[in-house]
Design a protein that fits this description.
heterodimer, A: mainly alpha, 3 domains, B: Helix Hairpins
């Protein structure tokens, strides 16, 4: 029976319930327990994530769970296909890494409980629960609620320190996010009015090429782009991501912006796979290309390290949207389309690890130096060699040099672009790689230079935190060893599997 | 003009007014109110959709009504969070817009 709950379905519920239970417990027990609760939930959640991926891989089919035993359209479905399981594992690994990194920065206070420690650990779990809900949601309205939960958890992370400029950045982020989600909701109501269901699988069989479908999908895509900070809706991202404390920046830049991107992918490839929308996909690709060029050039001109990394996020988000003109094809299962699709998803995963590592490295450097001016980095390479090494490994992935996940992702996009005769996207990929090389080199050259006067560090940075940075960056490097072809795991639950080997 | 069309047009006007306010007004409080106006327009559309289901033979489609209630809760939470941030910003700097920082 294709439409019944599967054996491992309860794991999907656990993936949401565990972090949410942690949030509730933290609020009930107070700030003195928040860190301990998070540290207990983290390995459990990682185990659940791995179990979900293993279940999808072993059964070679989609894991399903129907809330309350009611089938859609009456009930609400949770589904985990190959793509969801990869994103869930990515989120779990990163949350655990960032949690270990943040222990020194947001310790449980000895005396009276402090606000930041309670808020950070609670929101870390809240972000995790919301992300998992986005990744396994099978109902468009449920996904709206999950997106909003994610926003409400992410916005306060920006202004944890309560300074005026971070408050302003958080408000700007919130306003963009609210506009995005209300546009998404408007599209949802139109879809429900036209087709009478919001379940992704049912909707994909009912949706037809007609004005109401175009209107609603455009509204939803536009809303999601505002949340994903695709150029020209990126205005909120640099101040928010650069102003947040380092572990929060790593979560925001690595994971939170990937959730709306994931939903755009769901919408375009799962809700309406058979609609001819090639021209619209070209528009998304063009915005992505503009983001790559603009973000990289502005990143080159930044004086502060965290702002440089934030603008690099703007650029790297652009790569994600290059997959649309290449993967949206009139015929389903076109082999190069599958390659481009896989490349786009790999870019999301490898950028998550690389960017989280770079933000954490920047946080350690800022702690040690007391500032994060790029011009004042001389000598830090000798003082914190492991941290700078982690930063460089992350940079490898951004530039798209082998071995790194970024290389595999960009190679796939590049080859698909050339093979499909859309060479202009290949030029963009290469130019973006060169510019990324420019801004990563700018930082590394300064960091490895000899200082004019001996460098004095404000604090000693614990080796364990540096080790976390390198471990997270190594995840991005390890992704460089996945074979250069559509991954079988990612294709589980997707129609029209077409395998092709790159030569 | 049927009542459903009338309500649908009202919803569209509310969304349009709200979008205009959100983009044009620099004051944050007005932006937050404009967001709520868009929300009201969307919720009105949910009502229209529920009514349309009723025309198909039900006594009224309950699903959009359930969605509206959830949507209201979410919009309320969003407004509360935005107002809290705005109050903190006002306490610290006295500014009610985002203009000064670019």
């Amino acid at each position: 029976m294709p439409n019944s709950a599967t054996a491992g379905g309860f794991l999907l519920v656990l993936a949401i319930v565990l972090p949410v239970a942690g949030v509730l417990l933290s609020v009930a027990l107070g700030g003195r327990q928040a860190e301990r609760i998070a540290l207990i939930i983290m390995p459990a959640g990682l185990a659940v994530a791995v179990a979900i991926a293993a279940g999808v891989w072993r059964s070679h089919s989609v894991l399903r769970y129907f809330v309350g035993g009611w089938d859609p359209p009456l009930g609400i479905a949770f589904r985990a296909d190959g793509l969801s399981s990869v994103m869930i594992v990515t989120a779990a690994l990163l949350i655990c890494g960032i949690g270990l990194f943040a222990r020194t920065q947001f310790p449980t206070p000895r005396g009276a409980e402090t606000r930041t420690s309670l808020v950070f650990w609670t929101l870390l779990l809240a972000v995790w629960g919301a992300l998992n809900a986005v990744f396994i949601g099978g109902d468009l309205f449920n996904l709206y609620v999950a997106l909003e939960l994610l926003t409400f958890a992410a916005v306060p992370l920006v202004c944890l320190d309560g300074r005026a400029e971070t408050l302003a950045a958080a408000l700007r982020y919130l306003l963009f996010a609210l506009l995005g989600s209300i546009l998404y909701l408007l599209g949802t109501v139109l879809l429900y009015g036209a087709y009478g269901t919001l379940d992704i699988v049912l909707l994909s069989s009912r949706i037809r090429a007609e004005p109401v479908a175009w209107t609603s999908v455009s509204l939803m895509t536009a809303g999601l782009l505002a949340k994903a900070a695709l150029y020209p809706l990126h205005l909120w991202l640099p101040p928010a991501h650069a102003g947040a404390p380092a572990p929060a920046s790593a979560i925001l830049s690595g994971l939170v912006v990937k959730a709306p991107f994931f939903l755009v992918v769901r919408l375009w490839f799962d809700v309406m796979p058979r609609l001819p929308e090639h021209a619209a996909a070209q528009v998304l690709g063009a915005l992505g290309a503009a983001a790559i060029i603009f973000g990289s050039v502005v990143a080159l001109r930044q004086a502060r390290l965290k702002l440089l990394i934030a603008y690099s996020t703007v650029a790297q988000i652009g790569y994600l949207f290059l997959m649309f003109p290449l993967a949206v094809r009139p015929e389903t299962g076109h082999p190069w389309a599958t390659v481009a699709w896989t490349g786009g998803v790999l870019q999301a995963v490898s950028h998550a690890f690389a960017k989280a590592a770079m933000f954490m490295a920047a946080g350690l450097i800022a702690e040690a130096l007391g500032h994060d001016r790029v011009a004042g980095l001389a000598g830090i390479g000798r003082a914190l060699p492991i941290t700078v090494f982690g930063f460089g490994l992350g940079g490898l992935s951004l530039m798209g040099l082998p071995p790194s996940g970024g290389f595999v992702a960009k190679a796939m996009l590049l080859t698909a672009a050339v093979a499909e005769g859309q060479w202009w996207w290949a030029v963009i990929v290469l130019t973006g790689g060169l510019l990324a090389g420019g801004y990563v080199f700018l930082v590394l050259a300064r960091a490895l230079a000899d200082p004019i006067q001996p460098l004095r560090l404000l604090t000693t940075v614990s080796p364990s935190r540096q080790a976390v940075v390198v471990a997270v960056a190594l995840c991005a490097v390890v992704l460089g060893f996945v074979p250069l072809r559509p991954s079988e795991l990612l294709q589980i639950g997707r129609p029209g599997i077409a395998m092709v080997r790159l030569r | 003009m049927s009542s459903a069309t009338l309500y649908g047009l009202c919803g569209a006007v509310l969304v349009g007014l709200g979008l205009f306010g959100l983009i044009v007004h620099p004051q944050l409080l007005r932006k937050i109110l404009a967001f709520n106006l868009i929300g009201s327009g969307v919720f009105l559309l949910f009502g229209v959709v529920a009514r349309k289901g009723a025309a198909a033979g039900f006594g009224g489609d309950p699903v959009p009504q359930a969605l509206v209630i959830t949507g209201l809760v979410v919009a309320f939470a969003a407004t509360a969070l935005a107002i809290a941030l705005l109050l903190r910003l006002f306490e610290q700097t006295g500014q009610v817009t985002l203009r000064s920082d670019g």
